[in-house]
Protein 1
Amino acid sequence: MTHLLVLIPIALGLGVLGLIAFFWSVRSGQYEDLEGSSVRILDADEDDRPL
Amino acid sequence: MNQCCAIDPKKSSPGDAAEIFARLEEERVIAASERLDDQRFQTSFLVPDMHCAGCIGTIERGLLSMPQVESVRANLTTRRVAVCWTKGSKHGTEILNFLNRLGFDASLDDLKQTLVDQDAAKGRRLLSSMAVSGFAAANIMLLSISVWSGAEPQTAQLFHLISGIIAVPAVAYAGRPFFQSAFSALSARRLNMDVPISLAVVLALLMSLFESLSGGAEAYFDAAVTLLFFLLIGRYLDHLMRHKARGAADRLARMSSKGAVLIEQGCPPRFIELAEIKPGMCLRVNAGERLPVNGEVLSGESDIDRALVTGESQSQSCRAGDRLEAGVLVLTGSIDIRSTSDAKTSFLAEITQMIQAAERGRSFYVSIADRMARIYAPVVHILALLTFIGWTLATSGDWHLAIYVAIAVLIVTCPCALGLAVPVVHVIAAQRMMDHGLLMRDGQTLERLNEIDHVIFDKTGTLTMAEPTVSASSQLSDQPLAVINALAEKTSHPAAKAVSRHIQSLAEGPSVDRQADLTSLSERAGYGVEAIWQNQRVRLGRPTWVAEIAAGNNLEIKHHGVMFAVENREIIGFTLEDDLRPGAEATILELRRMGFAVSILSGDQPEAVRRVAERLGIEEYLSSLTPQEKIQHVQQRQAQGEKILMVGDGLNDAPALAAGHASMAPASASDVGRLASDVIFTRSDLSAVATACQIARRAQVLVRQNFALALLYNSVAVPLAVLGFVTPLIAAIAMSSSSLIVIANSLRLTRFSNLGKSTQDRPRLVRSNGGSGRSGISQPRELAA
């Protein structure tokens, strides 16, 4: 039982981190051009910073 | 933009026409841009031809190498390039010209930026909601599984509490799209699918909170958030499809004329926007532009193309005193007009009003999902209520248990699979349509396309290509060939272009290379071109005008044709004919095979319509129709119970397009025509019409199957729920499995290849000619220098 008190917050915390990362990716416009992203990776000279 | 008179008086010296022109162009670019600060602008360019990584790289690197460009971002989904640049003389036009020099047919994006932003914001909201509900669903499911697999009561209660702590904010955040929609439906005294969804989610949440706080054994937190997660997937897919289709339709929907060049006494010509035009202004319309408003010609002569306005396929000439409608294309020379209307009262505006009236009729159409919701929502509510009453009576007043069972009924019946049944199919169908060069406005189009039984075509620009071809000519010898070609190349008149193409296709031998020495070349609007060749006059143009200089032999003068003559020598005649759109015959046959009636409604002359109808074997055709007559005809037929698919391209078709049960337009159509239609086909092949109908049929079959599957699931799950056998575990399994089955069934559309042979092979050939979008656009480039 005591393990759970430690492990569950850790698990949820990691999940929340993932969620925050996803929010950031949405905010920074990475879902605005899904088609473009799929082909940009093929361009060798392309710098791959988002926006 | 008023500063242009004051800015630089020395530039306005008459005769410095090129300078004025360049300044007007720059003003247009700035008018379409967003001003970031004093020095910087952001401009969005439409680049329909961009389609791969190479294009993106070329554009972005190319533009960044320009000194005035600060940043560039190409968006392949919407085919737009956003450029941030600093102010300077001709800086904006340079960017546009640069894009055109790279080989992309770029133009200014005139879509309202706020609309784009709103759309993007909505997408971001849905995506975030989906992520939150997905996060909550995964974590709560994990906790629930431990409870279901036999956790000790204390552990179970702790897990329920944690689930509750996750679920409440998650539902509050992710449920907003449904709560808002349900609220607005209820305030309009309607029921939609979102009402039972919201009710189920909120009740399940409240009951589960109550249960877990009071130490109860079971909670529905997982069901509530999983339900939201699945439904949000459906919503997001739906949004993606609309967004994509709209981006595509918008990039084709360029306004025919965004403004005009105003000529004022004592002031240099300046560009004014459409909204600023008032009756009585003097406006200059250059060759290749469309009239922005109705007007009377003041000076200048030109050939004009009324095809998009009236459907007449042959160009006419105009001179001072003639009255022209908005949307008429000026072909050969620039003319000055006095506007007789403003943008709100022009011919274009009248047509737009007719379209709006017709579209109101269409908005009464209820999509299949809404029809389901109208039956489904009340049934679910009544069922849950009856369950509650039944259990209260049966257990003699145990309302706690009764509520519990009633909520289980609500959750189990919740249209999880129903919510996915339609959008998944529509998204896949839209993708199939795109693969065939078809851009669809929304999912409802598929449903309406599936119901039609009669296909009505417009002639000019729809069944036939917008440009004529030479179908026959007199005997040609080598020498005049080069002369005719040289003359024909001097004008942009469609008939001359047809002749030039014809000669080039004829003379593949050495004779093409021969250059004809022409001097004192001149073009006479409405007649043709004239020049001196080897000290003799030569003319190419209208038969009567050419015959004036020819030798006296009375060659019969054809109605539909172009002639050529060298002074005092024999006349050479070319017969012009409207070229059928590729795949026209096969498409008509295919549509008949599918059981549709086919007819033609045209604004063109009876003779021209009859010829096309006979070639295609269409018995039913009407000609010389005004836009009003077209729309009346369509409405009458629909009043008799027919469901009409209208296929047309012109302004004159636009009201009929809006009135039809469904409508299609080629990409070459007028803007108003494109805006009024449900589906736009970007390839020149007419087989797109049959393909669209086939995909729509197939999609509707799948939608019905999905509904059947969802109902089948309900018919099993509901009795169990009413009898009180459904535990949270069973609800979770049933809900997920029914959703998965529906998605799997929808995916069968991707493998659907049963499209007629004629429709399968041709589009591929067209595609190799340079991608979709480019093929049909015959509009003048507004800004190409």
Protein 2
Amino acid sequence: MSVYVETATAAKECGACPSTSCNTAHLTRLGIKMDDWDYVVALAGNPNTGKSTLFNAWTGLRQHVGNWNGKTVTRAEGALRYNDRKFKLVDLPGTYSLLSMSVHEEVARDFVLFGRPDVTVVVVDANRLERGLHLVLQTLEITDRVVVCLNLIDEARRNNLKIDERALARDLGVPVVPTAVRHGEGLPELLRVVDEMAQGRYPTRPHRLNYRDAALEAAVAQLAGQLEGMFPGLPNARWVALRLLENDESIIRAVREGTLGDLQRPDAFPELMQLEAR
Amino acid sequence: MTLNQLGVGRKATVKKVYSESAERRRMLDLGILPGTVVETVMSSPLGDPVAYRIRSAVVALRREQAELIEVQENFTADEMESRG
């Protein structure tokens, strides 16, 4: 974790202004006005890494920002327009894992897996990188459209942490953008990368763990085949198969009751539209 | 020794995690796995839970969780010497 060297990428036009007035060239904040959208972007990350601050900076909404664990209970949604493309932004609850230990993790996981966002931004605290990378790797097992937002880079600088985000991006196989969202630093770059990835113009090569176990791989292949038969169009049967082998109760229940596929329906997320601009 | 026996301000290296199923997954998600260095930061007034520093984040664990984590205390060179 100590192989990183800092490169300053502070957005000059944004360094001095507060995040709410940070002008990103072609950004229009649409609040909750979203009748239609071109792309869906999910915000995932550990608790207290700045997901909601990022959400607010991009949507102009005031999703409550607080310095405690589990603040975003379900999900908040907002919209923005960038270069004539409309993005729906979904702020997921903060989690350390996507492996369904709590309602928070289940909400986050179900959305990343079945909501099929065009891009998932994983926000990590640059000061606690090791911890955040765990979630990044789990997300990369589900989707390859991931942008890592290396947030709180200003605090990391104060703590004399130097992070080589280029080496990190190379190893993870997805882009890594350092930001200090509170001060608007790095936001234009992050939005540009998200936009490019949403349009499929940003090829990724996600780092995936090789389990190196022939018996496990055989079991996964067999289960994945059966799952694809049962649930046509399942986004990631391999991932679901791994969870079944791991005895994940919520996934087992969903498969047994035949509701796994239901999560792909747009109305599977009723809480989607409930956030009001406050 | 197990993690709950580690004194405040002391550091140790995780040797083995005995927790099972969901609880085990939780520990691993928090970054507690063999080789991880943990430090006891402070104890609550009643001694349970206890706060530990794990990979630069502070995490509170209950006694029954910490009891399932086998650790080896880390001693500085000076301490090793004074212990003979």
